[in-house]
Structure formats: structure tokens, C-alpha cells
From TrEMBL:
Name recorded for this polypeptide: Corrinoid adenosyltransferase
Keywords from the UniProt entry: ATP-binding, Cobalamin biosynthesis, Nucleotide-binding, Transferase
Protein's organism: Paenibacillus faecis
UniProt-listed GO biological process terms: cobalamin biosynthetic process
Record family assignment: Belongs to the Cob(I)alamin adenosyltransferase family.
The protein's annotated pathway: Cofactor biosynthesis; adenosylcobalamin biosynthesis; adenosylcobalamin from cob(II)yrinate a,c-diamide: step 2/7
Length: 189
């Protein structure tokens, strides 16, 4: 079976229910989710099977859900099929965030993305996830979208932040504070 189709040689690609230009914001949105999925796989490859068994399992589940997110954003028209991403996924991410945050040292200032290789990879996931979210919001201005997928991406970037800090904490690598940061976390409004 050939993996090439030649159907995109003129600058268009298929979405569910139609065709669009390859630089369309819809393709950018679900394409960035695909990029994120690859980085999640890379991050998982840095996770030790013993020390990070829970995280590896979570990352694999996230990869499945990112395919669902991309699929939900690939419809030509809202409601052509039932969506795959529901509110339950963002809610479940919140419980995962809380679980990882419980392991992390208190945080008062912004930190530099980095530390261990795993933490660094998770920070890359966080930033790519934020871009995917921004593009999905831009897409929502052009067409109706599944807002649960956007909520999921928003929560997912928080998950990557918490998990990146846990990766450092479990490997006894301190987060590096941004030296010119004010105390922005843990203060009362």
C-alpha cells in the first residue's frame, strides 16, 4: 500500500466532510495537535519505566485523547458526527494535576523551563499545547467547534507544567527560578 495519494499536490487537504487549503487555520489547529502528540511521545521516551510508570501511562492516554481532539477539530461542519472529547476529560486532567502538584515543592516565582531531559520535554509539550489552544480559539472565530476540546487543551497545558515540575522533583533536580520574577504564586488577591 502506498502512503502517498497525490491528492494534496495542489495545496489542499481533506477534512471530515470537505477539503480546505493546507494553510487553513483548521489544518493549523489540528496539525499543531498532531505535532504536540509527537512531542508527548518523545517526552514519554525520556521517562524511566520504574520512576515514572504513572506518568508514562498518563502520557499514553493523553496521546489517545489528542487524536480525539484533532478529530473533533477536523470537521467541515459542526455536529456532523458525535464529538469524542467531553467535559469529563478536562475534569480528569484536573485530578491528575492535583496528584502531581502534591509532589512538587511550593512555588512563589516563575521558573525557567528546563531541568531534567524529561522536564524539558514536558515544557516543550506545554508550549506547543498553548499554541494548539490559541489556534483552536482562532478556528472558533471562523466556524463552530467543540469547545470541550479547547477546554481540554487549556487544562492539558497545566498538566504538562505540573508534570514537568514533578519530573524534576522525583529526580532531585530543583526548578530554576526566573531571577527577575516577582512573587506571583501563593499570594492572596
Amino acid at each position: 500500500m502506498a502512503i502517498y495519494t497525490r491528492t494534496g499536490d495542489q495545496g489542499q487537504t481533506s477534512v471530515i466532510g470537505g477539503r480546505v487549503d493546507k494553510d487553513d487555520i483548521q489544518v493549523e489547529a489540528y496539525g499543531t495537535i498532531d505535532e504536540l502528540n509527537s512531542f508527548v511521545g518523545l517526552a514519554g521516551s525520556y521517562a524511566d519505566d520504574t520512576l515514572f510508570a504513572d506518568l508514562k501511562q498518563d502520557l499514553e492516554q493523553i496521546q489517545q485523547e489528542l487524536f480525539d481532539c484533532g478529530s473533533d477539530l477536523a470537521y467541515a461542519k459542526l455536529g456532523e458526527r458525535p464529538y469524542k472529547v467531553g467535559a469529563d476529560l478536562a475534569e480528569r486532567l484536573e485530578s491528575w494535576i492535583d496528584r502531581y502538584q502534591a509532589e512538587n515543592p511550593p512555588l512563589e516565582k516563575f521558573i525557567l523551563p528546563g531541568g531534567t531531559a524529561l522536564s524539558s520535554a514536558l515544557h516543550v509539550c506545554r508550549t506547543v499545547c498553548r499554541r494548539a489552544e490559541r489556534q483552536a480559539v482562532s478556528l472558533s472565530k471562523k466556524m463552530d467547534v467543540n469547545w470541550e476540546a479547547i477546554k481540554y487543551l487549556n487544562r492539558l497545558s497545566d498538566f504538562f507544567f505540573a508534570a514537568a515540575r514533578t519530573a524534576n522533583a522525583r529526580q532531585q533536580t530543583p526548578d530554576v527560578e526566573y531571577v527577575r520574577s516577582a512573587k506571583v504564586f501563593g499570594r492572596k488577591s
